[in-house]
Amino acid sequence: MLSYIWFGMIVFSCISAVFNGVMPELTSAILSGGADAVNLSLRLLGMLCLWSGLMNIAEKSGLCEKLSRLMRPILDILLPGSRDHVGIRNAVSMNLTANLLGLGNAATPLGLGAMKKMQEVNEDKSKASQDMMTFVVMNTAAFRLVPSTVAALREAAGAAEPMDIIFCVWISSFLSLTAAISAVKIVGRVKR
What we know:
Elements: H1 2-20, H2 23-61, H3 63-78, H4 86-100, H5 104-121, H6 130-140, H7 148-156, H8 166-191
């Protein structure tokens, strides 16, 4: 569906440019936009490689296990079905840590790994468990302690202070996470 929307926007842009006589400007924008996209991709890729490497080092050094123990009281409340599964708790802890650092792209593979482990212990394989739904919501509306991806985007766009949004990010991500977890818990109780 998204492909059709993009295709429609491109066709509409070309037709509008022809009728308004601004085809040279459209061509120039396409070429400069492509160069900007490659530049931005390289900046984000560098940041993603750095943080992914640090997360890998943290996992191999045992820091993940320590983070898992630190997060255990919270995870036991939020994900009660995964209390006795150290592998799930470690995978969820790593995902939450990546999200705390604002590394949405690095958190994705960690989140997929945690979901696979949760599915292994899920009794009804055709439906998501309450823990799985809570984890998806926590992952989607994650709290960002360091909004590194947003800061990298702002820096690439020429912002003088890329991290000056940090307090707004803290407030909005805390409120969205609280609302999301509350909603999934309420819906889970109503569903039962």
